[in-house]
Amino acid sequence: MAASEENSALFPIFVLTIIALPLVPYTFVNLYLTFRKKTKTVNCRCSTCFRSGKYRKSIFKRISNFSTYSNLTVVLLWVIVALLAFYIKHINTEVQIFEPFSILGLEPGVSDSDIKKAYRRLSILYHPDKNPDPEAHKYFVDYISKAYQALTDPVSRENFEKYGHPDGRQGLQMGIALPQFLLNIDGTSEVILLLGIVGVCILLPLTIAVIYLSRSAKYTGNYVMHHTMYAYYHFMKPSLAPSKVMEVFIRAAEYMEIPVRRTDEESLQKLFVLVRSELNLDPRNIRQEQAKFLKQHPALVKTELLMQAHLTRETAALSPSLERDFKKMLALAPRLLEELMKMAIIPRTQQGHGWLRPAIGVVELSQSIIQAVPLSARKPTAALTEGYGPFLQLPHFTESVVKKIRPSTVATESGGWRQATGLDAINGGRIKKEKKNFDIVEKLEFMVSRFMALLGIEKFVEKGN
C-alpha cells in the first residue's frame, strides 16, 4: 500500500513533464514570432489612412486578436503547469533514513539500560495489547521494534552499521508514475491499461490517418479542391471575355460549400439592389435577366453578390453572418485566382501557348479584388483610357470627383505631372469646395512622388548609367 501511494505521488511529475515538453518550445517560438513582427507605419498623412484600423487598433481589437483558441489553450496549459509545480513542491517525497536513536527518542551513545527504558515507555503507547489502533500497531512493528532490535541484538546491530537497516541490505525501490487506481491489482487496472494502450497507440493514429487521407483526397497540392480545378478547366474558353471571368471564378467548390441560410435572404435582396448595375444584366430585358440570375444555384448567387459588394464597397450593408462568409470568401480568393490563372495559361497548342484573353481577364479581376474597384470602372472612357478605376483607390474619390479631373495626354518635366494627375485642377479651385480636399491632395502628392522617382530611374538607365 505504501509503495502504491509513493507511485501515485509521482504521477503529477509525469503529467507535468508530458505537458511541459511541447508547451515550452511552442511558447518560445510564438513569443519570438510575436516580437519579430514589425509595426506598420503610416506612409500617407490623409485622415483615412491615419484612422485606418490597419495602423491603429483599439483595445478591443487587440484583445480579440489575442483571444484565439490557440492562445487561450496555451494560457490554460501554463496555469495547469503552475498548479502542478505548486503541488509537487509541497509533496513530501523525501526518503526517510532509518535512525533508531531518534525513533526511540534518545541521543547517540546512551547506555543499554536507557535504551530498554525508552523501549518500555514507547511500548505502553504503541504496543497492540495497549493500543488497538492499526496505525499504532504498524508503527510499533516497523519502527520501534526494529530500532530496539538494531541497538540491542548483535546481528541486527551489525546489519545496521553495515547497511543502515537492522534487516540488512535493502533492495532498490523503483516507482511508477501512474495514479493509484491503475496500480490496484483487482482485475480492473489491467483492462484500463489495455484500453489506454489500444486507444492511444492504435485508434488515435488510425483516426488521424483517416481524417488526413479523407481531406487530402479532396485537395490538390496548393490546397485547392479537385472539383474546383475541374470546374475551372471546363468553363475556361479561349474566347472568354474579361467581364465573364467572374462567372467562372465563383464556381469554385470552396465557395459552393459556404452555407446559404434562409435568414440571409433579406440581406441578399438588399445587396442585390445595391450591386445590380454590376451584374452584367441586359437592361432591355431587365426583369427576365433578374429572374434568370436569381434562379442560379443559391451558392453562386450569394458568392457573386458578396464579391460585387466588395468591389463596389457596399460591405456596410452586410449582416453579421454574411460578413463572416464574406471574410472567408476573400481569404480564399488569392489561392483560387492563382489556380484560375494557371488554367488560362496552361499550354493548349502544339507551340505550348495558353489563352491570352482569359488570362488578361483574370489579371483584371485580381486587380479589382485587391483594389476593391468594380470591373465597370476599368472600361476606357473618352477622357481616361484606363477607366476611372485607378482614381477610386484614392480617399473620398467617387465617379463624380473623377469627372472633374482632366488628365493631359502628355506629361512633361516642367509641370505636366501635376496636370496628368489633376493636381492643377484641385489647386485651381475646381474641387476646392470639397471638404476632404486635403486628403485627396495628400494622396496625389504621395502618388506623384513615386511617379517622379520611377521616371528618374528610367532616365538614369537610358543614359547608360
Describe the structure concisely for a colleague.
Helices cover 61% and strands 0% of the residues.
Give structural attributes.
disordered N terminus, 465 residues, 21 helices, Helix Hairpins, 0% strand, mainly alpha
Give the SSE map.
Elements (H helix, E strand, L loop, with lengths): L1 H35 L10 H4 L8 H8 L2 H21 L10 H5 L7 H15 L7 H19 L1 H10 L24 H29 L9 H10 L9 H5 L3 H4 L8 H11 L10 H9 L3 H14 L8 H26 L10 H16 L27 H5 L12 H6 L1 H5 L9 H26 L3
Helix pairs in contact: 1-4, 6-7, 7-8, 10-16, 13-15, 15-16, 16-17
CATH homologous superfamily caption of the largest domain: Sec63 N-terminal domain-like domain
The first-level CATH class name of the largest domain = Mainly Alpha
Name the helicity range.
Answer: 55-70%
Named CATH architecture of the largest domain = Orthogonal Bundle
Please, how many helices?
A: 21
